[in-house]
Design brief:
Helix content: over 70%
Number of domains: 1
Number of strands: 0
Oligomer: single chain
Shape: globular
Amino acid sequence: MNTNWTHPLEGQSVGKAFISYLVPSVLGMLVVAFNFIIDGIMVGHKLGSTAMAGIGIASPVYTLFVAMSLWIGMGGATLYSNAMGRKDITSAKQIFTKSIMLIMLVTVAIGYVAFTFKDKLVYSLGANAETFPFASDYMNIMLLFGFVFTIENALSIFVRNDGNPNTSMYAQITFAVANIIINYITLYVLEWGVRGVAIGTIVSASLALLVLLTHFFKKTNNLTFTRFKWNNKLLASLLLIGFPSFLAELGMSVFSVSHNISMDRIAGTDGVASFTVLNYIHGVVLLAFLGLASAAQPLISYYHGANQIKRVQQTIRLATKTALACGLLLLVIVQIGAPYFVQIFGNFSSGVTDNAVYGLRIFTFAYVFMGVNFVMSTYFQSVGNAKMAIWITAAREMIIMIALIAILPSFFGVTGVWLAVPLSEMLVLATIAVYYRKRSLTDRINALQAE
């Protein structure tokens, strides 16, 4: 144990530390989101709405790889920061080594096993005869080489938790810029179609990984590989703490599949295409909120490990206020600009365009609650309250949402599909409020009994 080592967070106020993580985290995520938007524009204009629908159907595979990297990456990074807060450098290095090795082994195995069942998998995700060729082309590349992206994503989390959010941001910018350039070449010059989009993602992730590796040459680096023994208790703790992050990304797959299937049943391929347009825009917001939560996580994890409770509370207050302000701002922007946002993806039929605009204006009410839910889930995860973090994530993206999307369309048609997520986010935030009220009451009773 190294008791002479001082973490950069020790010399900063909570407000200054939060801003120093918030700006690069959100900026990096927004650049990645901008890249996804450009991808959507290029695919929409070059290949049309059916190709976009195909990518949307196959996107859960991409999301699954992200989910695996976040599960192990966030779980490992949280324990890593907890250990750094205790100034237990040896344990921190062992946690890092185990996490990176685990994510590599797991995602390679998943990708190659799933590849053997790829055709059945495409149809089970909601593909039809029109969308199958596009979904299959995208999925084949992602299953074979998606492990590159997962390693890059997990390492980015560790670099941020090692006090270097700027390098994580530079890697995200590298990924985004490279992806735009490569996708332009593969789509418009080489004309490789949807397959070229998937190749662009993998190559760009490889370049971003090279940027992250520069962190290992910095004097402030504590991420070094070391010998270790597999510790079942530590592994279980890592997987439990990281599980809410896995659920959050897996929930995006559930979100995409459930909406694709519902839209295909109610409105056909045009309905799926309109949802895919909305999903591109929704992806920007999700990444912005993820950037906000990612900025708070290293601080909360470190302060919790160092037993600096007041700093934990200050961080969560700053993060929730920021999330609420962003949610309200997004609500106003999307209500005003919905038609313009939809039009930039291509000249679609009126059925696709009108449904996407209509859906976006309903769906955007979710953002008022969503950011706060993101932050609170991250808070509970960072302090080791995995049960509450799992409930928030599972309820908002699976349990309540699936129930609503199964029930509401029977009464409200396509409007019911668009309403499912906003109502789900609102109900989950209500459960968080109830939990806090009960916990506060319990704390007051315990304090009185102690007297």
